[in-house]
Structure formats: C-alpha cells, structure tokens
Amino acid sequence: MRVIFHGVRGSIPASGIEFSKYGGHTTCTEIMTDAAQIILDAGSGFQNVTLANDRPIVIFVSHFHHDHIQGLGFNPLLFSKQSEIFICSALCSKDSTQSCIQQYYGGTYFPIDLLSEISKLEIVSFNELKSIFARDLTIESYNLSHPGGSAAYSITTSTAKLCCLLDNEYREDQFQSLSTFIDEANLTIWDGMFTADELQQYQGWGHSSMEQGEAFLERSNCKRLAITHHAPHRTDIQLDAIQQSFKDPAIFIAREKQVEIYD
C-alpha cells in the first residue's frame, strides 16, 4: 500500500510562500493497492493525482462540502482514462451521490455537465463497491460527527490497513467505537483543523483538534497518525512548531506530496 497526500488543507486552498512546505491544496489522499487506485476525497489536490491506466480507480467522497469535491473537474487525465472509474460515498445512496455531484458540476456552478464527459464512469453505492472489490480489499465505513454528516473509511489489503477520519468533531463518547474501527491500522488520517484553544470558539463546526489526535493515538492501537485538513491560515512556521511539540514520533503533520509506504 502506497499513500500519497495530494491535498492537506481544509475549507479553502491557501497560497503564498508561508504555506509552501506543507502545501495549500484542499484534501485529497491517494492509496495505491494491487486491486485499485483509491482516492479519498477530491479537493483541489485531486488535480495533481496521476490516474492509473492498469487498474480501476475508486473515488471515495466523505461528504459534499466544497473543499472535498472542488478538484474533481480539474484533473485533465479524468477525461482520457480507459480504466474503470467508480465514485462512491458511504454517506448516502448512489442516486443522492450523483445528484450532489451533478448539482455542483453542471449548469449554475460549472460550465459543463461533468459526469457525462467522463468515459467508463460509474457511480455506485457503498455496498456495491464493497462487493466489487471483496476478494482483494476489506472496505468499511463509520459515521462521523459533522454538520450534514461525513463518512470515515477503512481500507485493508492483505498487508496493510489505512483509516481516514475526515471531517469529525471528536467527542470522548466516540473513543470506544472509533478505536475499534481503526484497530491495528498502519496509518490513521486525523482531522486537525483546530488547536485545543480554537475548539472553544468553533464548537459545532464539525472538526477536531491536533491535541485530540495526539491523545487518541496514545490510547488506541494505531501505529501512525497523520494530522491533516489544516486550517487555511496555518503557516509552515506554525505547523513546524506543532510538529516539534508532539512527544510521540508516530504522529506527524501531513505535507503535500508526502509518500508513505506500508507493506
């Protein structure tokens, strides 16, 4: 399993030299397995994904807030691929998934009807997707705490497990079920939009803190934890300082173009 972070920001992209180390694109993570190339969310970082020619492509959408789908129409390879492309969200039915994407990428907000321009594209339900790849991948979902809902994903191959927990307003009463969901994960992706101090101001916005991620890692059976979905105003200097404050080397601030390999 090869993991590449293509976008690590939340809400809106960030530009400028003060964001150059960690990157400014909104959330998008690529997972390359033998069975499929899996994309977790299609924020603006999706434009930089090199789409596979030799295996199916699966795009999982956690939810339909703009920072998680705003890059879908901007990867030029999407229009020329001959590989099968599946789009799926565990948050809702395939009809609702299609309706949400079509509304965003057609007519009022986008110049073309995007979905009709992509060959070999199929929108499927989460259960259909699980069945398609049942021989090679174990795929699970978990309902997170976020306005309008958000779906966590767990992808397990014969050699590695990755879990993505975006976007989630972590509560202590989630600990037992979440720790079971991510049990023995090689990597868990954590929503670190806020600091502990900022959480007081942003209760109800549907995000967690970096300090909560560190505490969660300490108590759970997870090997590594990536903090991502950085606030768009959080500079490289600030993120460096937060990274240095972590006591456990198993927790890290995710960077654009960062590659992780788990065998």
Q: What is the total tally of β strands?
A: 13
Instruction: State the secondary-structure class.
Output: alpha/beta
Summed over residues and divided by their number, the pLDDT gives a mean of 96
Largest sheet, spatial ordering of strands:
6-5-4-3-2-1-13
Helix content: 10-25%
Major sheet, described briefly?
7 strands, mixed
- Please trace the helix and strand order, writing H or E for each element: EEEEEHEHEEEHEHHEHEE
Through-space gap between termini: 6 Å
Q: Low-confidence spans: pLDDT under 50, at least 5 residues?
A: none
Strand content: 15-25%
Number of helices: 6
Give the overall shape, derived from the CA principal axes: globular
**Whole-angstrom Rg:** 17 Å
Structure commentary:
By secondary structure, the protein is an alpha/beta fold. The protein is globular. It contains 6 helices and 13 strands. Strand 5, helix 1 and strand 6 (121-123) form a beta-alpha-beta unit. Helix content is 19%, strand content 23%. The protein has helices at residues 94-104, 126-132, 175-181, 196-199, 210-219, 236-245, and strands at 2-7, 28-32, 37-40, 57-60, 85-88, 121-123, 138-144, 150-156, 161-165, 187-191, 225-228, 251-253, 259-261. It has a 7-stranded mixed β-sheet with strand order 6-5-4-3-2-1-13. A 6-stranded mixed β-sheet has the order 7-8-9-10-11-12. The termini are close together.
